[in-house]
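WARN no homologs supplied; continuing
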Amino acid sequence: MSLLQDQVAVVTGAGRGIGQAIALAFAGEGADIAAVDLKEEFCAETVGKVRALGRRAWAYGVDVSQAAAVEEMAGKILQDAGRVDILVNNAGITRDQLLMRMSETDWDAVLNINLKGAFLVTKAFCRSFIKQRSGRIINIASVIGLIGNAGQCNYAASKAGVIGLTKSVARELASRGVTANAIAPGFIQTAMTDKLTPEQKEAILKQVPLGVLGQPEDVARAALFLASPWAKYITGQVLAVDGGMVM
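OK structure emitted
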């Protein structure tokens, strides 16, 4: 039997990159996927690929920083899928700028999506997990939340907050059979890193002992492990998938 046979996973930021890779890895192990992104059409490719694997898939468009919209989305997912077994909070943005030049708008935008969004979506499914006395929550943080980075005060703060949120949720829900863990990716080859100049990539790779960028599938496999029965005794942890950056 597949690792996640007939389970239902919600993945935010599922339209591309790491979110899409996680959705496909889960579907490949038997899960049905509720794909969430800012707009429903952003999830069309992911949904098509999941269905091609023989699994059910649904697309939902929502701004995860908006409480009422998140609650409505959660209700629709539970109605459409019947239950939720796994939640992956992956939705995130960047608005990079040095602290002295960073606007309040850019600070708020990043904290609202990356941290408040994870809080709202987790809260929306919390009662369901508690009622069924099972569930896996996987939050996608970042090594930047562990070590900081010049020009990313907002992003670093949001991802450090995600780690704190994860540990607190893990303590609150452990008695109900629910685990909560975080993954801290390093530099992963996505649309974001594709925009870097060769010089910028070279500087980044000097920080990575393995000497290469990670792939979205590297993060997806870590998420699959944390969602699987193999990780039933792991909670409140942060798994760095970073080529050795923060060893």
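The first helix runs from residue 17 to 28.
OK
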